[in-house]
Amino acid sequence: MAIAIVLPDSGRVELADTFRPRGRALNGLGDSVQADLVWSSLDSTLEILDSSTGVARATFVGTARLQARAGNLFSNPQTVTIREHLDSLRALGAKRDTVSAPDSLSDSLSVQAYATGGVPQGRRVVYAFTIFPDSNAVVTLVPNDTVFTSAGLAATRVRLMGTTIPDSVVVTAAMRHANGTLVPDTVVFVVEFRQ
User: Which top CATH class is 85-194?
Assistant: First the structure.
């Protein structure tokens, strides 16, 4: 027999958040069998709130090991990564920029992420843009539309490609929590182009 465990959000959770793992006992053929699981944490960074359901709360940033048992059968410990709890996202510097042709590169569109439990390192910031008016103008984001925070900071730039010049490009920067919900305070930048 064995116990199979599935962790929500690929085993990532933010500080003070709760989550519920799923588990099932398997026979030698890999089929599910009826068994009551009892959940426990092997580390103080994760608090089990209900040992029968596995509902747990992240108490410290770091890693934790979660285990389930059915009678004398124990699962392999599963690693849970506990990240800082993202609180907000703010613009770092100007939210408007004017680019004069033939220059085709905007200033940095920089954001600062704030979190409880530490400085958010390696967290994903997604930039998306809309061109006004909707024309044949082509722009791209440099280095990319997805940037990872370094010391809580992330930045990208707008590059105009080709000869058609739009009036402006509106760029939004957003982050998501480990559970997929949006972090408050999506940041909006406006880059104006002039000939």
Answer: mainly beta
- Residues spanned by CATH 2.60.40.1080 within the chain? 2-83
Give the position of tokens 């730039």: 157
What distance in Å separates the CA atoms of residue 13 and residue 84, rounded to the nearest whole number?
9
The position carrying tokens 């994760």 is 46
The strand pairing partners of 188, in sequence order, are 172
Length of the chain: 195
* pLDDT means over runs of 10, the chain (195 residues): 92 95 91 94 97 97 97 95 97 94 87 96 96 87 96 96 89 96 95 90
HEC sequence for 131-195? EECCCCCEEEEECCCEEECECCEEEEEEEEECCCCCCEEEEEEECECCCCCECCCCEEEEEEEEC
Task: Specify which residues 58 forms β-bridges with.
Answer: 46
Q: Check if CATH label 2.60.40.10 holds for domain 2-83.
A: no
Please state the pTM of the whole predicted model. Answer: 0.85
CA distance 184 to 121: 18
The DSSP 8-state label assigned to residue 15 in this structure reads T
Q: How far apart are CA 12 and CA 61, in angstroms?
A: 11
Residue 118 token pair? 């530490």
Residue 22: how many other CB atoms lie within 10 Å = 13
